[in-house]
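<goal> How does this chain fold?
<sample>
Here is the protein in question

***
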Amino acid sequence: MKIFLATILLLISFYIVKVDLFEGTIPLAYYPAVEECSETLDYISVEIVGGDTIYSLFSLYPASKAISFTERLNDLYTLNPHLINQSFTAGEHVLLPVYNTSTPCKN
């Protein structure tokens, strides 16, 4: 009877150790928490004056980090989808993307 109880206790302890190793606190401590990084697009609102073009807006408000014209243009159209098939009109407010040199998230 003692051998039977010892075997049962040994199996229960092995089961507890197995559950702790595979599903318990050790796997949670081993893998670091993944930091979710969502990059948001910062922008400013600009009022269009007669004769303004995309080139003049980009030269008036330059980017502080190196970015290509195509990427900047895509971000402009992301913020202002109504401008894809039309030109600027005087007095209209347009959202212009702003780029900061600081990167809050590291990949």
